Amino acid sequence: MQGDGGVLFLSGVGEVTVAVAHDGLSFQPLHLDVSSSCWSSITMQPKLQSKLQFSDVYAVEHLDVGPVCGPWNTRTVVQGKRNTEMNRFVVHAITRSRKQPSPWVPCEYMFGHKDLETCKTWAEHISGCINKEQDRPKNLMVFVHPLCGKGRGCKNWEMVAPLFERAKVKTKVIFTERAGHAYATLASLSDKELKKFDGVIAVGGDGLFNEILNGLLSTRHKNSYPPTPEGCRYFGSNYKCQEYTNNGVSNNMATGDDVNVLSGNLNTPDDHEPLLSTAQSTGLDISSSNLSDEPCNGDQVPFVSFPNNWFRLGIIPSGSTDAIVLSTTGERDPVTSALLIILGRRISLDIAQVVRWKSSPTAEVLPTVRYAASFAGYGFYGEVIRESENYRWMGPARYDFSGTMVFLKHRSYEARVAFLEVGNTRSLTTSADNTINGVQPLQYHQSRPHKTICRTNCFICKETSTSEHNSGDEILASSRTSCENQKWVWSEGRFLSVGAAVISCRNERAPDGLVADAHLSDGFLHLLLIRDCPLPFYLWHLTQFTKKGSDPLSFKFVEHHKTPAFTFMSSHDESVWNLDGELFQACEVSVQACRGLVSLFASGPEV
Ligand SMILES: Nc1ncnc2c1ncn2[C@@H]1O[C@H](COP(=O)(O)OP(=O)(O)OP(=O)(O)O)[C@@H](O)[C@H]1O
């Protein structure tokens, strides 16, 4: 290797001059008679490029002496031989698959040289360059759900584990033994232990991810409860306009009432929920909360709090529902997800904080906090999950079966919903203002605004995302929602379902998701109120989700509101909530979007 370049033998291409730039390598065939078709003529592996970005290289391996293929171009034979024995090293990178444009696949660039030292120098130099790439994880905690998606969890982990090994990413692997295992592990893990990891990976479905999310946040997200409307019995319990932040741990935040409400919760165990109540597990102590980004405990170990700039979550999709992966990568592919994790890709993700005030109409007020990454829904959505529990033996098909059963029952539920209408994000349907007094007109279809789909490098999410350059304080500032022009709007009546999508919630059945233009990190929930309507209309609405490019939310009986927060009240306990596919018994809840509360190893949906 001389300076920033040299001549090497590239398997399948022949001799090439290799130039090293600050961001990658480029190769030029030395013998011009080796046509450029060589780059794409290698059929044994995905298409090689003549330029390689370091950001796409995940490992460099030095190999023993062995054969390196001559050019694949049959008309040209450089050095007279097809295979030449020489010293070798391999650069492992990612590329698009040959057959499909979308998933990422690993590819290898095998280089050879007759001189061992030259080979070693090259391999070390390229390794040094990729080690300078910021933001790559070195140590990860991995939870594998062995039973998820018909036992796919273990198989998928076996498939991708060699990629982590090759990239020298250490993994502490925990095979879950029961529901709640991942939650309990993370909720009880000391911050000192957690700080040893750059992130946590779920090899499972949305359910395991939800457990991990709750385990991490239950003790580490110190936040004011969602705002509630005037007239609601919780009004003022924790909310003042200027306090509506993702992290309300501030000295001026806690009113006397706040402390009462929060501390009143501390000693009371949660009822029969698999996850512990936040208050029980956190010992939330507003008065002693420290304002700095990373305060220290007695042993000088910095506390871990969310949002933060370093910790990330990842998912290797293996469940029967993988809506979070599909909405954040555009793919349901374990290898794509593993490569995005290893390469340290990062996006911010909004999280819905759901506070249950009452589990049933007769229960005492006992605020209990849960988090959802994709969806929180009541009525139809809750009943499908509840019903499906009776048919576990069917595997993933139980969702179709119970969906049909619940649909045919066609039940509706009496409820009152109040949502915050903010500034220019007025309701996407026309009826909101009309329903303030409980009037329930059918909506008139209105031409809906142009949809801006969230994609990789989405400018809407980037505007104030928790980028790696932001300090913790900047994150908090960016996540603060303007209180100007906010007003509460009421909607009440009988609903087939009440749902809030945090992200698009794409899945195989709904290629555009529940809300095609939901963003990963814009600080908004998409509240979907499906009013009681004749069964055929409801069927028509549901079938629209299965068609790409359709508009299932344009029906008169559908209200769609983009909002940072809402409160739901029912005087019955006829139905349950579904949080990321997990059941949550509640008849009164408040929900708020926490902008960019967590970061994910992903680069956004490539759709
Ligand atoms: N070892 C285990 N045994 C039983 N349940 C588990 C285990 N590990 C995790 N769980 C729970 O199983 C539920 C579903 O997990 P996940 O979403 O990963 O898989 P899935 O195949 O998509 O499941 P489902 O079809 O129930 O949605 C979660 O609530 C999770 O907490």
Automatic annotation (TrEMBL):
Tree of life domain: Eukaryota
UniProt GO MF annotations: ATP binding; ceramide kinase activity
Keyword Kinase: yes
E.C. number(s) listed in UniProt: 2.7.1.138
Cofactor(s) of this protein: Ca(2+)
EC supergroup of this enzyme: transferase
Keyword Transmembrane helix: no
Any Pfam family the entry gives: DAGK_cat
Catalytic reaction(s) noted: an N-acylsphing-4-enine + ATP = an N-acylsphing-4-enine 1-phosphate + ADP + H(+)
Keywords assigned: ATP-binding, Calcium, Kinase, Nucleotide-binding, Transferase
Any one Gene Ontology cellular component term annotated for this protein: membrane
Residue span, DAGKc domain: 135-358
Protein name: Ceramide kinase
One GO-annotated biological process of the protein: ceramide metabolic process
